[in-house]
Amino acid sequence: MNREKRLRVIQKIARLRESALLCYVTGDRENVNTRIAPDVTPFFYRHLEMIGKRKRIDLFLYTRGGDILTPWRLVHLIREYADEFNVLVPFRAYSAGTLICLGADEIIMGKMGELGPIDPSVVNAFNPQDPANPAARIPVNIEDVYSYLTLARDEAGLRNEADLSKAFLLLAERIHPLALGNVHRNYLLIRSLAKKLLGLRKNCSDPDEVGRIVDHLTEKLYAHNHMISRREAAEEIGLPVVYPARELERLLWELYQYYVEELSLDEPFSPAQLLKGARTEFTVAGGLVESEYGQDAFLFSGVVERRDFPDAGQICVNILKQGWKTVI
Question: Which of 154, 228, 271, 284 is deepest in the core (most CB within 10 A)?
Answer without folding.
Answer: 228
